[in-house]
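Reviewers of the previous submission asked for a worked example of the structure-prediction workflow described in the proposal, so we include one complete record here. The input consisted solely of the amino acid sequence. No template or homolog information was supplied to the procedure at any stage.
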Amino acid sequence: MLSRRIAAGLTGLALLATPLFSAAQITPELIRARTEREWTIKAEKMRRHLLPLMRRHDVDLWIILSRENAPDPLVELFGGYGVTGWYGHRNAYLFFDAGAGHTLETTALGTHLSGHLGRFYDTLTPYGEEGLKPHLREYIETRDPRRIAINQSRTISMADGLTAELQEYLLDAIGTPYRDRLVSSEQLVVDYASTHTLAEDAVEREASAATYAILRRALSNEVITPGRTTLMDVQYWITAEWKRQGFEFNFPASLDLQRAGGVTLDDAADPVIERGDLLHVDFGVRISGIVADQQKMAYVLRAGETAPPAGLVRAFVDSTPPRALEGPPRPTPLPRGAHVRAWLVTTIGCCRRVSGAVS
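From that input alone, the workflow returned the following structure tokens.
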């Protein structure tokens, strides 16, 4: 089990005794730059890739319905709620294929439509006391789409953001024959989320580097004192650090450890980290809507040890895929006083998290 776990992703044996301090200064200018970069990247991706994918999946109209306090997570792919508004009382985000020779037609019907949404939507239509229903009905009757995709899926959680109430509202609003033309958006969503642009890849590398730097420090003498530090101490340090650097919430860092005798403990037990423990952490930061998802392992040296046990080193050396990519690893000598030796694991997953994942 241990050999398989290490072999799954170890690429280098490195010493983490010297902390890497970040010089990030959180300023209004930095937050604005990251936010506007996210909007620009997502709008350019939508304009370039969404229409061809809709045609591939024979979707004439894609409807995303969202509501205050129950937003569809996919709204984040197309502008989110911005900085001056909220998700609206009931909002409809509409993507229509008018046919060959036409570009993608994008429309937002709703309340609290922040100005930045103009990057994503050709038309922003607010409503008043009359509500969303008459606007949505008129929009669909005018265009008469054959196949209408909605975010409802049993298998793909990120394509299942349509609430039961909003589904009933939609069916009542559009009536027949359009209610019989509804299809799941799941394949469209999967293909769109899986399409990477060069701009997204650049931000992804930035997120991966930031995650790597935080975890190097988390699995080091800077944070861990054997016999005193608990797993949750490390978890809270990671949380404080990504917040200090102004990153967005992605998912909470998850930690566990293996101890001699076949003992496995996770952060629910909050055990004190002891010498001889093998630590494991799963974490990633989010920048401009792009996330990293990395896993790292670290061994805590016992008193008198200057290197991990031969069995752990052998399991690492015998990990065939990393060796094929990186060549045989070479342990780095430990300086005086160091007690944590860590394996830096490859990014097991680095993706665009919307909300949830493939179930």
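The domain at 39-194 is CATH 3.40.350.10 (Creatine Amidinohydrolase; Chain A, domain 1). We consider this example representative of the routine output the project will generate in years two and three.
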